[in-house]
Each structure stands twice: as structure tokens, then as C-alpha cells.
Design brief:
Layout: H1 2-28, E1 34-38, H2 41-51, E2 55-59, H3 74-81, E3 85-88, H4 97-103, E4 110-113, E5 149-151, E6 162-168, E7 174-180, E8 187-188, E9 196-200, E10 206-213, E11 219-222, E12 226-228, H5 244-261, H6 266-291, E13 298-301, H7 307-312, E14 316-319, H8 331-344, E15 348-352, H9 358-367, E16 370-374, H10 382-386, H11 391-402
Helix pairs in contact: 2-5, 2-6, 5-6, 6-11
């Protein structure tokens, strides 16, 4: 009898321990995790900070990919179809989000669009981006083999940008550059006869194809058709995550969505959100105090991605549009940049993270300026990833870099 009671007490104790472990795992461990898919890096980090160990948060647009030009795969569609939540910024940033969601079969999916419902009065909701053109439906200039490489094509350009490309082919002696408007025919740019292409954007998308000619002037190959996408964001800047105050609103939106999906763990999500929001507020206050008394408030950037930082802290962003670090700028472009440097008096030209190359140094040498990197955080740099650093650290690097021009 005593033996039976002993075994019974042991079983009860074991069951109690197992129950306690299950409760602990359910609160913050790996049991019963939510499945969340996020579009690109800032959305991923904001979501991960709030969800913590209660969710398996995946990143769709990984390192090295461009969220503007990303094409979701069948695997992505499956992942979102099986998810509890999908979070993205806006169609103006992820133009493909709407078509992705139209393809997904998941009536229970919670969709969080971070450009919605931001509480700051100075935020204007970014509209949906215009439809991108389908290169596969465009007939090439000729039937020549596609053995020419074109470098310098950016994710998108703005009206007034000088689109600069360069063609590469070992057999070429001369070149032809052909341009096609969406509803027009291919037109030969007769003034362009070498491996460089330059054209000022007039606000409309267009296609470009390079044809390589041998010494006798006969075609020996052509490039793939390059789509030059012009996206002025309808006067809006989609980089809302670069404002530490708006970032707090986005974190709140994620918190609210998670609580709606998983109300039993509201306190867990709220604690995580409050902790991260406190870090974002401290970041904001450091930006604010650093630039409060600055007399020189202008900074020059390659790509106008930092408008929210400029607006929040009363700075002036001047953009040098269309300058690709893959292609050495022409003398005319150098003259334009020189004029900008002279007009603004800035000592530094900023390039987005990943674009500070030898060509950037050429620009600096020609203009008598220095170069420095700003993180737009569309992707996270390998250096930050290697040191397990994220949004807060990258933004603090931006703060330090901007002080070279704003003081």
C-alpha cells in the first residue's frame, strides 16, 4: 500500500513539473508560437522586438535584395498562406504586396500595414505606388544574343534624375543605345556611341537596351532590356521607419495586432513594446538635442531617402539623383555635383549603406568633399549583422555621420 502511495505521489509531482514547464514555454518559449511573415528589415525588427519568443518571425526580403524590385516566389506565397500575420510598410515601398495578398489563400491572416494609422500629425499616408511595367512583354531591339551586361540600373529613380548606365562586352568597338517609352517604339539615341548611357528622367518609365557593334559596325550582341522605373512616391517619402517618433507608432500597431491575435499574452507583448519604445524615444531625444543648436543644417545625399529625418529635426536634405556608384560619373555630372557642393557649402556627400565605393571616392576627389555612409535600413549591413547590432545601433551611426555636415 505504501509503495502504491509513493508511486502516486511521484506521478503527481512529475505532472506538476510538466505543467509548470508547459506554462513557462507557452509564456515565452517555443511552444504554440505564432507564425509571422514580415516584408523587409525594419518591419522584421519592429515585429521581432514586440513578439519576442512568442512568435517565429521570418524575413521575406533578405540581405542583398531590394524591397522595391523584389518579386515574391511561390515559397513566399505559401509562407504567407500559412502565417498568422503578415506585416509590411506600404505599397509605395513594397509595390508587390497587394498582388501577393491577392494570391494568398488565408482567410484568418492578420495584415498589418505600418503606413496606416500613424498617430503623428505631421505624417501623411503614402499612397499606393503606380503599376510597374512588365519587361517580358517588350520585344527586344533585335535577335542578337544577349551577351552584353549593363551596370548601374537602380531600383527606381525620381523625376529629374540623370540615369547613368554602362555596357560591357569584350567584342564591342562601338555601341548603340535604344530607348522605348511604354506605348512607343524603340528609338536610337544617335548621340550616344560609346559604352555610356545618360538620360535625364522626365517622370515617365522607359526601357533601355544596349547593342554592341564590332569594328565594322555590325551588331555582335545586345543586353537584356533594362526597365528604368520612375517613382516620385506621389510627393511622399515611404521611408517612415527612419523617423524614431513614427517608428514608435509602428511598434504600437504591431503590439495591437499581436494582442488581437493572442490576447492571453497581452502583458508579454506590452512589456516588450514599452521597452523598445523607450529605446526609440531615447534615440529621438539624442537626435533632437544634437541638432537643436546647429547653424549648418543642410546635408547632401545620393538618393532622397532621408526626408523623414530632415522633417523631424528641421534639416534640409539635398539629393543628387541618379548617381550610380557602379558607373563613373561623366564630366557633366561632376560639374552638376560641384555646383551643388558650392551652393550648399557642405563638406560631405552621403551615400546609402553599401554604396560607398571607389566611384564615390572619385566624386569626393573631384568635388573636394568627403564621403560618408547613411543607413536607409532597407537592408541591414553585413557589418552590423556580424556584430549582432540592429535598428537602434544603425540609427546612432546615422546620427554620428550626420554631424559631419550638420553642426
Amino acid at each position: 500500500m505504501k509503495k502504491r502511495i509513493g508511486w502516486l505521489l511521484l506521478l503527481i509531482a512529475s505532472a506538476s513539473v510538466a505543467s509548470a514547464c508547459a506554462d513557462t514555454a507557452d509564456e515565452g518559449g517555443n511552444e504554440n508560437q505564432l507564425n509571422i511573415v514580415t516584408s523587409f528589415y525594419p518591419v522584421y525588427e519592429f515585429t521581432q522586438q514586440v513578439a519576442g519568443e512568442r512568435a517565429d518571425v521570418s524575413l521575406m526580403v533578405g540581405s542583398g535584395a531590394d524591397p522595391h524590385t523584389y518579386e515574391p516566389s511561390a515559397r513566399d506565397v505559401t509562407a504567407v498562406s500559412n502565417a498568422d500575420m503578415f506585416a509590411f510598410s506600404s505599397e509605395d515601398m513594397e509595390f508587390w504586396a497587394e498582388s501577393l495578398l491577392n494570391t494568398v489563400e488565408n482567410d484568418e491572416l492578420t495584415v498589418v500595414r505600418l503606413a496606416d494609422g500613424l498617430e503623428s500629425a505631421d505624417h501623411r499616408e503614402a499612397p499606393a505606388a503606380g503599376e510597374r511595367l512588365d519587361v517580358s512583354e517588350v520585344e527586344p531591339v533585335s535577335n542578337e544574343p544577349e551577351n552584353v551586361t549593363v551596370i548601374g540600373v537602380a531600383g527606381h529613380y525620381h523625376t529629374g534624375d540623370t540615369v547613368t548606365l554602362r555596357a560591357q562586352n569584350e567584342e564591342a568597338g562601338n555601341w548603340e543605345w535604344h530607348v522605348k517609352e511604354p506605348s512607343g517604339n524603340w528609338e536610337l539615341m544617335s548621340e550616344l556611341t560609346d559604352d555610356r548611357f545618360e538620360k535625364v528622367s522626365d517622370g515617365e518609365d522607359f526601357f533601355v537596351q544596349a547593342v554592341a557593334l564590332d569594328a565594322a559596325g555590325e551588331p555582335v550582341g545586345q543586353s537584356e532590356i533594362a526597365h528604368i522605373h520612375i517613382d516620385d512616391h506621389e510627393g511622399e517619402d515611404p521611408h517612415i521607419w527612419l523617423d524614431p517618433v513614427l517608428a514608435q507608432d509602428q511598434v504600437r500597431m504591431i503590439e495591437e495586432a499581436l494582442v488581437e491575435i493572442d490576447p492571453e499574452h497581452e502583458s508579454y507583448y506590452s512589456e516588450n513594446a514599452e521597452r523598445f519604445i523607450a529605446e526609440l524615444q531615447a534615440l529621438h531625444e539624442d537626435f533632437e538635442s544634437t541638432f537643436a543648436e546647429a547653424e549648418n543644417r543642410t546635408f547632401v545625399v545620393q538618393h532622397q531617402a532621408f526626408g523623414y529625418i530632415a522633417a523631424r529635426y528641421n534639416l534640409e536634405q539635398v539629393a543628387i539623383g541618379g548617381l550610380s556608384t557602379e558607373v563613373e560619373p561623366s564630366p557633366s555630372r561632376i560639374a552638376e555635383i560641384n555646383q551643388i557642393v558650392e551652393d550648399t557649402g557642405v563638406p560631405v556627400i552621403f551615400y546609402q549603406q553599401g554604396a560607398n565605393s571607389s566611384i564615390a571616392q572619385t566624386v569626393a576627389n573631384e568635388t573636394g568633399t568627403e564621403t560618408a555612409v547613411l543607413h536607409d535600413l532597407e537592408t541591414l549591413s553585413e557589418e552590423l549583422q556580424a556584430n549582432d547590432l540592429g535598428y537602434i545601433e544603425a540609427m546612432r551611426e546615422n546620427l554620428e555621420a550626420l554631424q559631419q555636415s550638420i553642426y
